[in-house]
From TrEMBL:
Domain Major facilitator superfamily (MFS) profile: 12-468
Entry-linked SUPFAM superfamilies: MFS general substrate transporter
Keywords noted in UniProt: Membrane, Transmembrane, Transmembrane helix, Transport
One cellular component term from this protein's GO annotations in UniProt: plasma membrane
CDD domains xref list: MFS_MMR_MDR_like
Subcellular location(s) of the protein: Cell membrane
Protein's name in the database: Putative MFS-type transporter
Spans through the membrane: 12-38, 50-66, 78-97, 103-124, 136-160, 166-186, 202-222, 228-246, 267-290, 296-316, 328-349, 355-372, 402-424, 444-465
KW Transmembrane (keyword) present: yes
One Gene Ontology MF term: transmembrane transporter activity
Amino acid sequence: MDEQANPRRWMILISVGIFTLMATLDGSIVNIALPVISKNLNIEMNMAEWVVSIYLVTICIFLLMFGKIADSIGKIKVFKIGSVMFIIGSIVCGLSNNLVMLLVGRVVQATGASMAMATNNGIITETFPLRERGYALGYIGSFVSIGAIAGPGIGGLILGHFHWSYIFWINIPIGLVALILGYVNLPKSEKTNPVKFDKTGFAAYFVTLLLFFGAIFIGQSVGFTNPYIIVAFIAAIIFFGVFLTIEKKVANPMIELRIFRNHNFTLGLVAGFFIFVTNFFFNVISPFYLENALGIAASTAGYILMAFPLVQVVVAPISGKISAKVNPIVLTIVGLVVIELAQLGYLAFNLKTEIWFILLCIGLNGLGNGLFQAPNNTMIMSSVETKDLGIAGGLNALSRNLGMIIGVSVSTTVLFLSMSKFYGKSVTTYIEGRPDIFIDGMRVTMSFAVVICLIAIVMSVVRLIKSGRSSNE
């Protein structure tokens, strides 16, 4: 096994990891800049949210497609093309002086990010020998988790010293370094497995997501009782049914539905999905709470929000080592309970909340995620056969990104609906001079996060009970 190990495998991990971190980071780093972008481009808050949403929706749409294409023409080739596209998209975003140009840049960025995310697990799986594979995949999982959560904190630090466009400009030098590392270290040739692409399945999948998320975000402005919005939701459900029917019949489906028969894999995937939804509730709301409601500068807000990734970075590797000695399901449950305590803390936030308490709750959330993410990712990837590692990695990435976009869409929807109810008329942005309306809406919104996290806890307890029964039999 040692003779077959790629001598450059750790440099490959670094180059793949850097792009994975940036691609995931850009799904959340814009959150902290939304109040600034909203004012600078003279757009309402719900329109500014599209800058985050369109990035995540694009990734969800193309992630599985590029995974299949990569199997046919080569993972490394797709990864390199995606890296270049991501840098080009960052340049367009940095040059943007209106919402349309910024959204176009985000789509280009996200297309490149989806190409990188669709291939990172596959590249690592093929590069590392079996004895090191889980360790290496764990690092990629850590890059993803930290990137998804650290965005608001890092973005706040950048905003404290530079224009909001530097949130995108910073990708260019880092991306070029990663590209050079990849060019030098990634193999020049690789095995491919040309298969017929499931075009019909992809079309149904594409229309399903477009209708569903389009209905959610447009519904925030026009109302969810609008006949067109209702028709869009019904059509999304119909197309999803068509998609599932196609996937059961085609020889090379976009999603291998059989893998969901593995209950350990499915429960781990769904629990991870719920936690990303939960995390993005506060990720979306926190910039407006800290900057608008409390009047804290963006840079200071960034320092406060950095408590989450800093705690998680310290705890995650420790959690990974502990999970090898104790039942990892028990560790995920402990992590989930700590996350739930943090959500309950967020629920108590108001206009007089002390900074130390805000830091405590954010730090608790980082601690819980550090305890949860590493063992949960390990269980997901280790619960499938070696031949299904690529599929499992792709679905794991999709569930994370779906969790982020559902978190963004549901949290903003609940926030605006509840604010509208308290204000007595339609609200689609932060109301200057009425922080009390925002606080009331935030409290309702975070109540949903508490319930979602509780569902994840119950699911994990069920998984623990089932694993105990199977080990006794």
